[in-house]
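ok trying this again, last paste got cut off
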Amino acid sequence: MQSVMGGRERYQTVMEQLAKPNVPIPADNADALFEAYADMVYRLAFLRTKSGADADDTVQEVFLRAMRAKPVWNSLEHQKAWFLKVTINCTKSLLTSAWRRNTVPENENLLTEMQTTTEVYSYVLALPQKYRTVIHLYYYEGYRVAEIAKILGVSENTVKSHLFRARDMLREPLKGEIQDV
């Protein structure tokens, strides 16, 4: 018979798991996985869909896939990359679905929904999706070009080109607000 953990024990278990350096969280520890990756998954899903409701649905789908598949990860980086790739795949499926093409998008205030500490984020949200994604992964998640290429399934030159074009698109609107753009 499986024992039921109380809130304090569950929290302590999650914190202990997160404190271990470069040891991936086991796939059957849903609380720890959610604690570690839910915010990152939500930010990327929101960035790609521009909808809080769609981002919530994507977070739910990503964690359901993790619970069903129970993947074995080699390291924390492998685990993080898995969550990013699955998030990208889920948002891609959502954005290309027939249901999505036949519905009217919600009118949401993106800046209040997605609270960030930077003024630049509103300009990033205005970029086309392919540029938003590479900018987010590069600047907000800290991935290198080669890692982004692998996650997105494109060449490194494509990622470099998207980064260059996105920076170029951001340069003009940010000229007066941010130094060294």
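PB: full thing came through this time. DSSP finds ten helices and no strands in the chain.
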